[in-house]
């Protein structure tokens, strides 16, 4: 049975995994005790200041308890740290999402996974390359992880879906019941048939910049390695590459002139020749 108090805490903005862990240690792993605590007691927990304490005090637990059955009726699976189906790769991170909301055919375990990421406005050859790489990896039983964005992400998901039995995960910076971008809702439906949508945000949340950046750590955290197909040095894929390196994931960049690819290669990322389909496993 889903712990509504845990879910309610995990939905608080800026209450990340590290702070929630400290909160649970302080309250003997009892989320209801944390929700019932006064502000002074909450502020004794490392990482909780006045604003966060007020947010915890303001949680409407009854509203969350009412919402959970509705989310589940809409096909949302709720995975907490304590659920056996929560991915072990992600749980091992010190900033792992306390709760994941999932729609589709979730697998509790998989052998190998690769994130394929890059710009929303790639060169045509990069789109083909991303799709071909995803298909080649999927043919070898690899789960393809990306972010459902336009451009490289879309090509990666399509590449996985082009392979019979291919499996792909789309990590969202919005709620799994409010898919963004809207132009990829048909793709999202296909992903749910052959994989899953995944998010740490409220299932009906609209996208925002913070959530879109933060979801990159989930994309990389779910993956054994990360392939950057094309990005500029200031592109969003660079956030993912930095998360991947901090998590100890292998990072590869396709050997093309894009400024982000050059920066990653110069910093020591593995190099994938532009014409290769040889997988770095």
List the helices and strands and how they pair.
Blueprint: H1 4-10, H2 17-26, H3 31-36, H4 39-42, H5 50-57, H6 61-73, E1 76-80, H7 88-91, E2 99-104, E3 113-118, H8 124-139, E4 143-146, H9 152-161, E5 168-171, H10 185-193, E6 195-199, H11 209-221, E7 225-230, H12 237-246, E8 250-254, H13 259-266, E9 270-272
Tell me what the structure shows:
The chain has helices spanning 4-10, 17-26, 31-36, 39-42, 50-57, 61-73, 88-91, 124-139, 152-161, 185-193, 209-221, 237-246, 259-266, and strands at 76-80, 99-104, 113-118, 143-146, 168-171, 195-199, 225-230, 250-254, 270-272. A 9-stranded mixed sheet has the order 1-2-6-5-4-3-7-8-9, with helices on both faces. The relative contact order is 0.11. It starts with a helix and ends in a 9-residue tail after the last strand. The chain folds into 2 domains: 1-73, DNA polymerase, domain 1; 113-272, Rossmann fold. It has 281 residues and is of the alpha/beta class. It is globular, with a radius of gyration of 19 Å.
Question: Keywords for this structure?
Answer:
nine-stranded mixed sheet, alpha/beta, 9 strands, 281 residues, Rossmann fold, 2 domains, DNA polymerase, domain 1
Percent range of helical residues: 40-55%
Main-sheet strand order equals 1-2-6-5-4-3-7-8-9
Low-confidence stretches: none
Mean pLDDT: 95
Distance between termini?
Answer: 38 Å
Please identify the structural class as seen in this structure. Answer: alpha/beta
CATH architecture assignment of the largest domain: 3-Layer(aba) Sandwich
Q: According to CATH, what is the class of the largest domain?
A: Alpha Beta
């Amino acid at each position: 049975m889903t712990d509504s108090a845990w879910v309610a805490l995990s939905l608080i903005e800026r209450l990340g995994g590290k702070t929630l862990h400290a909160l649970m240690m302080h309250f003997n792993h009892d989320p209801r005790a944390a929700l019932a605590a006064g502000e002074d007691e909450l502020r004794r927990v490392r990482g909780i200041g006045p604003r966060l304490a007020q947010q915890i005090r303001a949680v409407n637990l009854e509203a969350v308890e009412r919402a959970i059955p509705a989310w589940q009726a809409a096909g949302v699976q709720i995975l907490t740290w304590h659920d056996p189906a929560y991915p072990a790769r992600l749980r091992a991170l010190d900033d792992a999402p306390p709760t994941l909301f999932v729609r589709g055919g979730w697998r509790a375990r998989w052998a190998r996974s690769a994130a394929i990421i890059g710009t929303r406005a790639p060169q045509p050859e990069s789109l083909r390359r991303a799709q071909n790489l995803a298909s080649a990896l999927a043919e070898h039983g690899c789960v393809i992880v990306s972010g459902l964005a336009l451009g490289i992400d879309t090509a990666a998901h399509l590449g996985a879906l082009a392979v019979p039995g291919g499996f792909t995960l789309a990590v969202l910076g919005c709620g799994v019941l409010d898919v963004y971008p809207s132009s990829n809702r048909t793709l999202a439906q296909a992903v749910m048939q052959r994989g899953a949508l995944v998010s740490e945000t409220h299932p009906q949340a609209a996208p925002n910049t913070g959530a879109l950046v933060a979801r990159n750590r989930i994309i990389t955290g779910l993956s054994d390695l990360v392939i950057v197909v094309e990005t500029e040095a200031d592109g969003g894929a660079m956030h993912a590459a930095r998360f991947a390196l901090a998590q100890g994931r292998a990072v590869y960049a396709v050997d093309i002139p894009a400024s982000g690819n050059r920066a990653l290669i110069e910093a020591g990322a593995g190099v994938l020749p532009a014409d290769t389909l040889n997988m770095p496993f």
